[in-house]
TrEMBL record:
Region (Disordered): 542-561
Protein name: dihydropyrimidinase
Amidohydrolase-related domain mapped to chain residues: 54-470
Group of enzyme by EC: hydrolase
Entries under InterPro entries matching the protein: Amidohydro-rel (IPR006680), Metal-dep_hydrolase_composite (IPR011059), Metal_Hydrolase (IPR032466), Metallo-dep_Hydrolases_sf (IPR050378)
SUPFAM superfamilies, per database record: Composite domain of metallo-dependent hydrolases, Metallo-dependent hydrolases
Membrane-spanning parts: none
Organism: Cladophialophora psammophila CBS 110553
Family: Belongs to the metallo-dependent hydrolases superfamily. Hydantoinase/dihydropyrimidinase family.
Amino acid sequence: MDLDLIIKNATIVTATEILQPGLSIGIKSGQIVAIAFSLPVDADTQIIDAEGAYVTPGGVDSHVHLHQDNAPTGDKWLSGSRSALCGGNTTILAFATQKRTDESLFPVLEDYHSRASGRSFVDYGFHLILTRPSPEILGRALKRMVEEEGVTSVKLYMTYPAFRLGDKEMLEVLMRCREVGMTVMVHAENADMIDMITTRLLQNSHTLPKFHALARPQIAESEATHRAISLSTLTSTPILIVHMSSPIALSHARKAQSKSMLPIHAETCPHYMYLLSERLAVTRFPVVDDANRGHSHEHGVHGEEGGDGAEDEWAGARHVCAPPLRHAEADLQSVWDSVNNGTITVISSDHAPTQYNNPQGKRKPLVEAQKNNSTPTFAQIPNGLPGIETRLPILFSAATDPDPSISPARRLTLPKFVELTSTNPAKMYGLSGKKGSIAPGYDADLVIWYPSPPHDPAAAAASLSDDKIKIKIANDMLHHSIDYTPFEGFQVCNWPRYVLLRGELKWNRDIEVRQGPGAGILGKPGDGKFLRRGKGEVLVGRSGMGREPAGMRDGERSAWM
Ligand code: DUC
Ligand code: ZN
């Protein structure tokens, strides 16, 4: 068989099961070719001993913003993809953004290719953000994107003046995406509600970061979600609603999936599973918060109780994202419940960072206001959080941490972890058969974790003192170019020990721990290849032309569709 590499003594996890411990994974020419208890070794076969640890498919982070014009202090490809790798990701899907002035999509794609080319540590692809879906674009360009460029997904915004599409434009895009087989992502928030509330908050001098959460209430998300589902139903087009945070919005998705069998997919992110809007009101950072990992807690995050940072009334700007962090534990719980009852199809990071201490970053409103002698406002704070490197360790911990104080309601199973962070995003975005699973024929993109602590509570308590398996997240251990992480101080019980991209070891945390920051990165910029993707799969509901929506006669749509 002439194997290049064998990962021995693995406990392999797939989206459906945890395989019997002790298996070996045989790798040749970057692909998995065999899984067995014993594989033939020759003189050139390299061996990595997983020591019984869980081995999961490399993470597929299908929602990351790198080198975007509206985030000049955010991660570009080098730092963003490096951070992805060190957090266990081997594929990332980022955005190529059409500006309203861009008449053609092809120069846009070329521009974004040139931003990424030769710089990525991990494999990557692009979703197109459509802001001007002209007849030409709908007529030919999208089809060519699928057939010639391997770009098979678009993202549509229902909010943000620079990006927002009206319902008619969305309908036209949906109809065309169904025809050409593109996956449609939707950012669902009602723009006019947000605009009206923001204007009135500012008129009332409510300008601090904490008012960001009031400006984008849950009803703005739930109304737009319901509308997006209606548009999808009318046009019989599958959609994926990104970064869902609201219980009512999630209930709309669940009802559509379960009662009407519609192909409505839902994405969430770790920040909507762990962080509350009270963080927008903090006046010190880092925040002292024992609320992570699903412990129920009485006290929240308050400036006075805050960490060792200096007093700063703008500190909460670090947590400005859209949709905003929600107010209540019950909101977090509804997201967890939606993860576990199957409503959520994908958990991405929505890594969309901006530095804090930078005049072009989260503090920009303060700097500008000082120059113009005006008042800084929450509405000028760039939206988005970093999270590409912390997504997998946090969620893997939710699946494996033996700490009995973690609420069972805030856990997920290991197969569910694999399904939502790797297998499903690969399937949804046209990477089936290549990425997102551990099986013969797939790319050998693998994460080998540290051997888990025993599940016997006494033994677990003893081994929790081992630094390898009890890790406190700190920004200075991350590899992005951002000066904070919202997960500072969170305890996780594991971290990707080895990460392999197409059969080559690219991250070795043992070396990082021994030799210091950056030493564990064995990969280099340009290792990551652009992925020409196929058409995405529909994972929930019925695909293709379903029955007419309620109230229409059978076949009625054929008069206009
Ligand atoms: N919200 C978005 O819509 N995009 C990026 C970041 C964010 O918070
Ligand atoms: Zn985003």
